[in-house]
Fold this protein.
Amino acid sequence: MLEAAETFQPDRGMLFLGWLDLHLKTAFNNALGLRRLRDLHDPIHQWESLSRTIQLDGDGGTLAELAGDGGEAIDGAEREIWREQLRAALERSAAELSPAERRALSGRYCLGLTLQQIAAAEGVSHQAISYRVERAIQRIRQGAAAEELAKFEEQL
């Protein structure tokens, strides 16, 4: 208000209330970060009521209902990160196994093959594959990555 009073020039044909209004609007817009008219039209300064009802392909609801909270995306991202970390820990533990143990374990738990199917592919008995799978699990439980894998089991 003081700036408006100090800069007011009555000989320019404007009333003081108009000059004061101009100064107050300018100060208010500056406080909001709206320095130019185009800033006012920036999408960040636009708003829409979340309770407004809209129709989409015969289905409708409020903007709030249709927009969702985005939590599902965050949960999905966290799940994917958890899976990647688990996969890396499993790969580190599998590196401690013999190639035959890795093939047996992978065939059984990753590919879902039966002991007989793995045995046929390896050219050994299904008892030999059973022993390899049991031995691989035992080595993983006692291996360097066992503690790390236990943390993943706690999170299940």
Notes: The first strand starts at residue 53 and ends at 56. The beta strands are 53-56, 59-62. The chain is about 65% helix and 5% strand. The chain has a mean pLDDT of 84.
